[in-house]
């Protein structure tokens, strides 16, 4: 980098008309050090590189700008790199295991990481979280191998490393992964008072509440505008032998009810395939959440994470305003991220 990372970041913020917070500058300086030790070639670094931490783990509350900062950093890296939602990464791993199950005694994790290294020397995981017991049991050995192959990772999360998979089943078997991450990554918390997604400059125009005739009328009017002159078809997706039909498909503008997406046995792999063919998504009839419909809420959280990661704008009709939308007790913390992302995805600044 001819300019320092801080200089580039200040120019970036100025071009986007973004306010700069001193805590962001502190984060940028830590990233500069991470870059110097891992991506800046020198004889000194060559002999010392094994002592350097090969990951950068940035955590903090929703809407503080974690993703914005690591997106900025990721875009500056010229090495082979991948940006993946964590669910997508683990689905790729399980698919690889299935495709190579007849390889005999050769270690499947070694094979996967070897294949991974051929594609990327840097991997970026946005909104890292662990909720699946199968994934939790694998991660220690998987990331140990990733680091041993000198693959760098950068991560954003709402959760500090020591609290990952907190209260999860058989968490003792997950602790080796926590120790590896603490040992191999720079962990830093980004603290900012305001959620930038709720700022006046980011006011939303595309969520309608409550669920009544007036909101339905407004949504129908909006949908007619965005689907005008687009041909309606039924889109059929083949997801590992399962058919999923998108009945309201207008050349990438799609419309679903909440129940079509979240009251069925769908998961991350289904949502990834849906988002691949979508340029704009409308979701009708999002309910309030409680302990009774927590399974549907969990699917909704996964869906919004993937929609956000793939940068697909949204319009929704919803039971309550976003600030008043309730949650089940067990999902209260991750749902804060969902609410914050809904503010951004439905904002007029997040355009088709």
Write up this protein.
With 352 residues, this protein is of the alpha/beta class. The chain has helices spanning 5-15, 22-38, 43-48, 66-76, 86-99, 108-119, 133-148, 175-184, 213-226, 258-262, 268-276, 294-309, 332-345; strands at residues 55-59, 81-85, 122-126, 152-157, 185-189, 207-208, 232-239, 242-250, 253-257, 280-286, 314-318. The protein folds into two domains: 5-189, Rossmann fold, CATH 3.40.50; 196-345, no CATH class. It contains 13 helices and eleven strands. The strands form two sheets. The chain has a six-stranded mixed β-sheet with strand order 6-11-10-9-8-7, with helices on both faces. Strands 2-3-4-1-5 form a five-stranded parallel β-sheet. Helix 12 (294-309) links the parallel strand 10 (280-286) and strand 11 (314-318). Helix 6 (108-119) crosses helix 7 (133-148) and helix 7 runs parallel beside helix 8. The longest helix is centred in the N-terminal third of the chain and has 17 residues, at 22-38. Mean pLDDT is 90; it is low at 200-204.
List the helices and strands and how they pair.
Elements: H1 5-15, H2 22-38, H3 43-48, E1 55-59, H4 66-76, E2 81-85, H5 86-99, H6 108-119, E3 122-126, H7 133-148, E4 152-157, H8 175-184, E5 185-189, E6 207-208, H9 213-226, E7 232-239, E8 242-250, E9 253-257, H10 258-262, H11 268-276, E10 280-286, H12 294-309, E11 314-318, H13 332-345
Parallel strand pairs: 1-4, 1-5, 2-3, 3-4, 6-11, 9-10, 10-11
Antiparallel strand pairs: 7-8, 8-9
Helix pairs in contact: 6-7, 7-8, 11-12, 12-13
